[in-house]
Automatic annotation (TrEMBL):
Pfam families in alphabetical order: p450
Designated name of the protein: Cytochrome P450
InterPro entries named among the record's database cross-references: Cyt_P450, Cyt_P450_B, Cyt_P450_CS, Cyt_P450_sf
SUPFAM superfamilies: Cytochrome P450
PANTHER family recorded: CYTOCHROME P450 YJIB-RELATED, P450, PUTATIVE (EUROFUNG)-RELATED
Keywords: Heme, Iron, Metal-binding, Monooxygenase, Oxidoreductase
Organism (species): Streptomyces ovatisporus
Keyword RNA-binding: no
The family this protein is said to belong to: Belongs to the cytochrome P450 family.
PROSITE patterns: CYTOCHROME_P450
Amino acid sequence: MTDVPEAPRRLDPSGAAQHAVSRQLRDRCPAAPVLLPGDVEAVAVTGHEELKELLAHAEVAKNARHFKALREGRVPRGWPLAVYATIEGMTTADGPDHRRLRGLVAGAFTPRRVESLRPRVRRLTAELLDGLAEFTGEDGTVDLREHFAYPLPMNVVCELLGVEVGLRDRLHQLFRVLLSTRSTPAQVVDANRETAGVLARVVAARRADPRDDLTSALVAARDEDGDRLSEQELTGTLLLLTVAGHETTMSLITNAVRALCGHRAQLEAVLAGTVTWEAVVEETLRYDGPIGFFPFRYPTRDISLAGTVVRQGTPVLAGYLGAGRDPRAHGADADRFDVTRPPGQHLSFGHGPHFCLGAPMARMEAAIALEALFEHHPHLELAVPDEELPPRPSFVGNSRSVLPVRLRG
């Protein structure tokens, strides 16, 4: 067993060439040293089995009190990744605190609750498809990400949370700043401040006018027994659920459309009914999932991954793209999109105690959206070659900033 090797790779905050970077890191070492913005040293775990071990490791924590560089004041103010470490909610809690916070929201994501939302998701999808003509340019193109892949999950999660319509677009704009690894320190500070204010307005509105939504339930839990949920945890939970509930599903839909447009024979098989839309969603999650390198986990003691030592307190990134195309787990053709691939055990929704609560909802929304889109527009095609589409400016998320398409009936 050896220490993590020298010469860490600096992750590109622009999000460019994420699959190539993930493959290079995985081929070098499935637990490889990297440099984050601000020259913060970290480790990226990009192998399937190694990532699975990390996600369920009993001596790897999520709470930033274990983040050695942060604790010692070596992380700069306005650090673009700070929100992932310092937000107070499920994603940064461990043990009993994690179980308490997860339990408060789990009821909103039960199979029965998710299934009850299916008719609403279908209606929203139909409304968005009917409205695409309004945004179609003279050249016949429309940005499908902006006018379809984004508003569908954003409206669903905001209805679930009770966020007023007038606040949704502003939250999305703020999240773009907070989730971009290219944001400047000043932009991050300002966006954090405004986001806190907007979410405080959501909480105040539901406190004054409780409804049948998750925010009202969380406010009631907070007001009835402050030991169950602090005000900071309430705000952090809303931030987490809003971001996770729309950003990843938006990118999942975007990436699936891109993959299907680039593999017309497979699209024809799905339209013919020989392959399910659910299979398309699962293969997209494996092949081109919405998360690149997700922050952070921290060993509470020195641990061994892939034969190397990851030191106590080192921030560790979960490299989902590398794991999704790991040939050791998915075969020699792991770099090939194949909707007929036998169901595998991809890790795109995580593994272990922090497995994504919203996975059933994301799967349902994406399958409904893709089926309706291609039934309405079976000849839809990209208006720009896929390789020319600009990436989202982040190595955390994995998608494109725009998705211009020609609907063609």
